[in-house]
Each structure stands twice: as structure tokens, then as C-alpha cells.
Specification:
Layout lengths: L5 E4 L2 E7 L2 H7 L3 E5 L5 H26 L4 H44 L3 H28 L8 H41 L18 H10 L6 H18 L9 H13 L13 H11 L6 H20 L26 H9 L9 H14 L3 H5 L6 E4 L2 E6 L16 E4 L2 H6 L25 H10 L12 H12 L7 H8 L8 H4 L4 H11 L15
Antiparallel strand pairs: 1-2, 2-3, 4-5, 5-6
Length: about 550
């Protein structure tokens, strides 16, 4: 899928895709252009990925039929294209209805929290039911669309219908809860309105929502002229992390449980989080750190975050805005941090003789992943998402092309992550091209996909596996990347630092025309020189047969 697939036109992102030349006469246009009805790049990418897949299926089918198609078959092809575009628009409209219904319900819920009379409750129920009815109607439309054979295969349709049924059940539960609340509320209102005597029990006052954490930080930290710029800056980073994880919570709702959950999240964050312009969101960063066994925040860093929040809560407790300080009294076990290091030749020899016994990942994929990692320095996430079409030839040199796959909802985390990696001569002799299986999308097709990404099962299996031969905790899958980096930077040959950074996908600390010129003959030859400097005399595992 090309990088020009999405264009922001006016307030909405538009999907654009060039129509193959043989089909332009049939469809009467040179490209597909459709508004995705959103300004959110994330939402637009999700919608565009689905449309890209559906139009791709149509193009593949149409190109096969077009040359020998009868007039009737051509009419059916054209009707099929129109159905795809119409149903796509309908699905986008349904999604927008769902989002709007959720917004309506959230407004109603907020209104419910502040109401004090039966009339206000009735208004709430009406607003809520209107939004939920709209949401339910959207689910029903989506359910009907899910039966279209050309939109999804049988498995996808079944999964979608199950999701819709679950969501519908939730809507019904919410409506029932609202009706039960109304039934319980009405007798009390009737009694108090007809016979308002002093002895009658009346509903207690609704709990008021207090000031939020950002408002309190602004009042007691950011505006305090006695605070140094460094304290203000660092507190702002901590508050931003908290708000990203839990939203801008009222301070009286931030309990010890919330503080503990935030502490766990901080200890799971990669140590480099926030140090790059294109850093992932906190939740995605945690998943990536776990999947790739990245080094995480130290106890000292987590303690600093808690100290900043504790200082803010000191003001709040003193002014009786909150009753207690949930950020105080925590311990920070600095010994839990494991310093990752390179693989030694002895450890690689141990790895070569260890027997892979996992049932979630094949021996062939295991051997392929660790071997390619040692000769490329690629991260596990990139390796697991390599597609068969990512093996390319540039100026006569076989390369892995690490690049975004919007249709698979995956992309490198930084601009520098998109790159060419020449394939080491050892990998070619070893049989890396045999990993390409006809009809398979991925280079490692048996890796199980999950919400946390492809390869999560393998990462967990590898972590357990390396303990059996007695390999230390300090070497992990990510240590392969460290090993490549160390070997290359210790080479005595004429290898420039910029070439190493380019090969490994690091953001270069200095600018150069060569930094981004990946496809020039000179650049690829230089990268090949870098790759060929890697040698592992003790690591020898043959590629298992199919």
C-alpha cells in the first residue's frame, strides 16, 4: 500500500488508490477516491486498510476475468465494484453513528451524575435510550453488512458477528440498568414531593467531582515561581504520562490502587520511552517492551516520578483537598532491573546445541528468527512482520526491505526504521530464500497473531527456552541486536558510523545526504560492506526442512 494512500482534504482524510490500467475503461476512472469521514489519522488508517484489502481482492478477481469476460460478466464486475464502494460508505456511516451514540451516552452519563430530581432522571433516561437505540441500529446494520461474501471470509464474518452480539448485549444491559435505576428512584421522589416532612429520608447529596490532577499541578507547581524550570519540566512529563494512562482524573479519585497500577506501568515502560519524537503511546510502548524484552525504567526513575506526584499531593493534603497521599510509602527495588548484554561466542555455541521444544512456534521459524537477527540486527517485531515480498533486489544486491505495512496495521516505529538491509552471504548460503513459501503472506507464517502483535507467543517461548540450557537472564532476544551493534562498532575496517546507524535503523545524530539515500548503488554497497563484517564462528544451526 503506497504512502500516498491517505490525503487530508479539508477536514477529512481521503482514501486514494490508483486503478490498474486494464480496469480503467471498465470503471471509467483512473483512481479510487473516497472520504473516510474522519480527521483522525489512526481511524483513517484503520478504515483505509480495510478498503485497501477489499479493493485489492476486487482488482485481483477482475484482472483474471476481464480479458475474456462476456458483456454480462463485465456488468457483474462493475456492479460488484459499486457494491463494495456503497457498502464501504455504509460501514463508515455506521461507525460514525456508533461514535456519535457513544458521545451522546457519555454526555448523558455526565448529566446523570449531576441530576437531583425525577425530571432530570427522566431526561437522562431519554437521552441515554436515544443514543443506545441509535447504537443498536448501527450494530444491526453492521451485522447485515458482515454477511457479504466478498467483504470477509467465513472466519472473519463469524468473529465479527460474535463481537456485534457481545456489544449488543452490553447495550441491553446498560438500558436495563437505566430502567432499574429509574424504578428505584421514582418512589423516593414521589414521597418527598407529596409529603416533604423533616423525618422522611431523602437521597444523600450527589458526590461532587473535585479538581483534576492537571488543574492542581497548574495551581501548585507550574505557577509557583520558587520552582526551578527543571522541576516544572519534569513534573509536567510525569503528569503527562499519568494523564495518558488514566485520563485527567479528579485528584479525589486517585487512590492507592490507581497509584499502584501506575507504578506497575512505569516499571514496564522501555527505558527509552519519551526520548524520541516518534515515541509510541504508553500502552503500545509497554506491549513492545514486553514483546521485544527491552530494557525498562529503573527503580530510580520510577521513584523520581512518584516523588514529583508526592510533592504535589503534599499541597493537596495540607489544604484538605484530598485526605491522604497515595504516592508516599512505596518501595523501589532497583535490583529488578537486568542489564542486557551481548551474546558471547560460548553462549551462542550453547544456543546452537539446545533443543527447541515449543509447541507454539515451529523449529523452522525459531531457527530462522534467531539466525536472521544475528546477521541483520533487526528487532523481533520487525522480523515477525517480514513479508515474502520484503525480500527485494536493489542494484543486484539481495536485501530485506523493512517498510510500513498499513494493510497489516504495522509499521516501523521511526522514519529511520524504514530501510534496506543487504542479506549476508552466509544467510544466502544457509538458505534464507527457502523461507519464502508460495502462497504465504509472511516469511514466518506460523507465528500466531494477537492484539499485542505477531510473535508474542514466540517471545514468551524464547524467554522460557533459554533458561533450560542455563543461559543467563542478561542475554535475551534483543541481545542479538546489541551483539550486532557491538561487533560492527568494534570493526577495524573502513566502516563509517553513519552506515551502521543506517543499517540498524537508528536516528542519525548528524545529517548527511547518505542518511536517507537508501536506494542508490553506493549506499546499498556500503551497507553490504557493513553486513559482511559480521561473523559468528561458534553459531551454526542448519535451516530445518519443511
Amino acid at each position: 500500500m503506497g504512502t500516498d494512500m491517505l490525503r487530508l482534504l479539508g477536514a477529512h482524510c481521503h482514501f486514494r488508490r490508483t486503478i490498474p490500467f486494464p480496469l480503467r475503461a471498465l470503471l471509467g476512472r483512473t483512481e479510487i477516491s473516497l472520504s473516510l469521514q474522519t480527521s483522525s489519522k489512526r481511524v483513517a488508517r484503520e478504515r483505509a486498510a480495510g478498503l485497501y484489502a477489499r479493493t485489492g481482492q476486487f482488482f485481483s478477481k477482475a484482472k483474471v476475468m476481464y480479458e475474456d469476460a462476456s458483456p454480462e460478466e463485465l456488468r457483474k464486475l462493475l456492479a460488484l465494484y459499486k457494491d463494495i464502494m456503497r457498502d464501504t460508505k455504509r460501514m463508515i456511516a455506521i461507525e460514525e453513528e456508533r461514535v456519535e451514540a457513544e458521545r451522546t451516552y457519555e454526555k448523558a452519563r455526565f448529566y446523570f451524575e449531576k441530576m437531583e430530581s425525577l425530571k432530570q432522571l427522566q431526561d437522562f433516561i431519554k437521552i441515554s435510550n436515544d443514543g443506545l437505540d441509535s447504537l443498536m441500529a448501527g450494530f444491526q446494520k453492521l451485522h447485515a453488512t458482515a454477511t457479504k461474501d466478498y467483504l470477509r471470509n467465513a472466519t472473519e464474518k463469524t468473529m465479527l458477528r460474535e463481537q456485534i452480539a457481545n456489544l449488543s448485549a452490553i447495550v441491553v444491559s446498560i438500558k436495563n440498568a437505566g430502567q432499574e435505576t429509574q424504578a428505584a428512584f421514582m418512589p423516593v421522589q414521589e414521597e418527598t414531593s407529596v409529603c416533604p416532612t423533616p423525618n422522611k429520608a431523602t437521597p444523600g447529596p450527589k458526590k461532587k467531582t473535585g479538581p483534576t490532577i492537571t488543574a492542581m499541578a497548574d495551581q501548585f507547581i507550574y505557577r509557583d515561581k520558587t520552582k526551578s524550570p527543571g522541576i516544572i519540566r519534569d513534573t509536567g512529563k510525569t503528569i503527562s504520562l499519568f494523564v495518558e494512562a488514566f485520563d485527567d482524573k479528579p485528584v479525589d479519585q486517585i487512590t492507592g490502587g490507581v497509584a499502584g497500577e501506575f507504578r506497575d506501568m512505569l516499571f514496564a515502560l522501555p527505558s527509552t520511552h519519551g526520548k524520541h519524537k516518534n515515541s509510541l503511546g504508553i500502552h503500545d510502548a509497554i506491549l513492545r517492551a514486553k514483546e521485544e524484552e527491552l530494557e525498562t525504567l529503573s527503580g530510580k526513575t520510577v521513584k523520581n516520578h512518584f516523588s514529583r506526584l508526592s510533592a504535589l499531593w503534599g499541597h493537596l493534603v495540607q489544604r484538605e483537598i484530598v485526605a491522604r497521599n497515595p504516592w508516599a510509602g512505596w518501595t523501589y527495588d532497583v535490583t529488578q532491573k537486568i542489564d542486557r548484554r551481548d551474546w558471547t561466542d560460548r553462549e551462542l555455541a550453547q544456543l546452537s546445541t539446545a533443543q527447541w521444544t515449543s509447541t507454539t512456534t515451529s523449529l523452522r521459524s525459531y531457527v530462522g528468527l534467531i539466525t536472521i537477527a544475528l546477521y541483520t540486527g533487526m528487532r523481533l517485531g520487525k522480523l515477525c512482520n517480514l513479508r515474502t515480498q520484503d525480500i527485494v533486489t536493489v542494484n543486484g544486491i539481495r536485501c530485506f526491505h523493512v517498510r510500513p505495512h498499513p494493510e497489516d496495521n504495522w509499521s516501523p516505529k521511526t522514519v529511520a526504521g524504514t530501510r534496506l538491509i543487504p542479506i549476508h552471504s552466509h544467510l544466502l548460503q544457509w538458505g534464507v530464500l527457502d523461507l519464502v513459501q508460495k502462497g504465504e503472506h509472511y516469511l514466518f507464517p506460523d507465528l500466531n497473531p494477537s492484539a499485542r502483535g505477531r510473535g508474542t507467543d514466540f517471545a514468551q517461548a524464547f524467554s522460557k527456552f533459554k533458561k533450560r540450557p542455563g543461559l543467563p537472564k542478561t542475554v535475551t532476544f534483543h541481545s542479538f541486536r546489541h551483539t550486532v551493534s557491538t561487533k560492527l562498532r568494534n570493526q577495524s575496517g573502513n566502516i563509517r558510523e553513519l552506515w551502521i546507524d543506517t543499517l540498524l535503523g537508528h536516528e542519525a545524530s548528524h545529517q548527511s545526504q547518505g542518511t536517507t539515500t537508501y536506494t542508490s548503488g553506493i549506499a546499498v554497497q556500503n551497507l553490504q560492506q557493513v553486513v559482511e563484517a559480521l561473523e559468528y564462528p561458534t553459531f551454526k544451526i542448519p535451516l530445518p526442512p519443511h
